[in-house]
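Ticket reopened. Same input as before:
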Amino acid sequence: MKLRDTLQFSFKTVTSYPIRSFLIILAMALGVTAVVVLTALGDGARRYVIHQFSSIGTNLIIVLPGRAETAGSFPGAAMGQTPRDLTLEDARWIGQLPQVRRYAPLNVGSAELAGASRLREVTVLGGTANILPIRHMELAQGSFLAHGSQHSAQIVLGAKLAEEFFPDGNAVGQRIRLADRRFIVSGILASQGETMGYNSDEIVIIPINHAQALFDTTSLFRILIEVRNRSDILSVKEAVRQALIQRHDGEEDVTIITQDAVLATFDRILRALTLGVAGIAAISLAVAGILVMNVMLVAVSQRTSEIGLLKALGAPASDIRRLFLAEAAWLSLTGAIFGLILGYLGSLLIRLAYPQLPAWPPVWASLAGIMVALTTGIIAGLLPAARAARLDPVKALSGK
Amino acid sequence: MIQLSAITRAFHMGDQEIRALDHIDLEIVSGEYVSIMGPSGSGKSTLLNVIGLLDRPDSGRYQLDGKDVTDLTETEQARVRREKIGFVFQSFHLVPRLTAAENIELPLILTGIPPAERKTRVEQALAAFNLSERARHRPAELSGGQRQRVAIARATILRPTALLADEPTGNLDHRIGSEVMALLEDLHHTGTTLIVVTHDRELGLRAHRRIAMRDGHIVADEQ
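Engineering reply: fixed in the latest deploy. New output:
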């Protein structure tokens, strides 16, 4: 029997039992749908997180005061010393390194913002002009903190704050009070929504010197460093470390993280998670495979006399085996294709419902879904096919 | 040319051994018309199954057209069956989900004949058996006589040398049964060896050679 005829004949058999075939195809389809949708969700979450990280800026190195180590105690702690501050002077020093394109010292705190007969607590970011390009922020109106103007009393408002305090939209140039200090609004940030857990629409940015005076500190919260080339990140990280150790009397009391490392870690975790859910979804494919086996076993006993007839007409056992395997393959392949369609529709619905989540089914998952469905279907068909092929023709013809 | 020598086939029922065929020697020349008669359990169907290579004897030799086919593998036997033997059954054994034409086409598919040739040969067979108008009907929509005609068309489409019929009229009334027998006899006239198993005396007597069986033995063999 030719392969083409085998496929055609078994396809006709599949269509001859519509309800049975529909149910088994549905089971297989739902299994594949589960794989596609769950991996789309997992991969969407991964992309979402990566995107959030990238939106902070690119080619970033972040310096934090203190050692972020869980093992061992800070050497000075026993003697009652606190970790050395990270100062503006340190930041300026780092800025001298040739591979550094720009750097931004950062202070964060909260204070009361008052003006136009309104009052509220806001998050205050102390920084320099460089913050804007490094953090990929954009201005909606006015100008940002000017370069070299650390001492002028300028303030940049988040979009929502500007709206709250100056609903007329004439915020630029207005006076406003932050704690006990007076500022002049120089610009308004474009609305960016939430990134990395805080809402840049509800912050104010003031020059770093004012912030340090306001919070009465000389210590920085962070130093953000943007490197010229991605390939320089590791060497700059090492150079910064060495420079700070030297400046801090040989003590390594800062933590330096690179955005790449953080990204890579999240990427790894979320990829593993996606694989995990794909694996869980694959269990439903195995269940569908068992259903295929059950249905095919029933088919063999239902069609015993037909198998006997085919043998009497001169079909060798191998033909019978192939016919039943082809039938199982048709059922699982059709199921897989429907499952793929359902899975892509499901992912589309998720993307429509949650536009921030890029829930695109990964190609590998779609291919793996089809392959696993087809493989389990054929493996599930092996036993019934072998049973059919082994039937004794005389007994089969008499329906025994 | 069918040559059986000392063919034995036994079945076990509990601890009892029943010899359906007990050292059968039989020679059937090509083109003969043979009937095998006997009460049920006499071994006549088993004899037909052994001749048709559906059943393997426990001992003895079987030569078909001068070649020993006793020890052929399952696949080789299937091939011989396909090329040389046509079966007609009492219960027709049509595939219920296939149309009359598709049922007739089955042996052609199994042999691997290309679709275009299959189509013309099926059409010829439908015409020859006066079934052209029923080509698209499924077995459930056919009368008993039509079903058996489809089955005969299927059994003969590969022009086998021997046509083996097991109670071919058993499920048909007398008139239709005679028509079917006439059809089989027509095929015999074109040179096909015809072997009919029946317990119907009248039917058996139509054959040129009549074999009677009892308890696994041939008790009469008259020309």
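The CA atoms of residues 50 and 263 of chain A lie 6 Å apart. Chain A has a mean pLDDT of 85. Please confirm and we'll close it.
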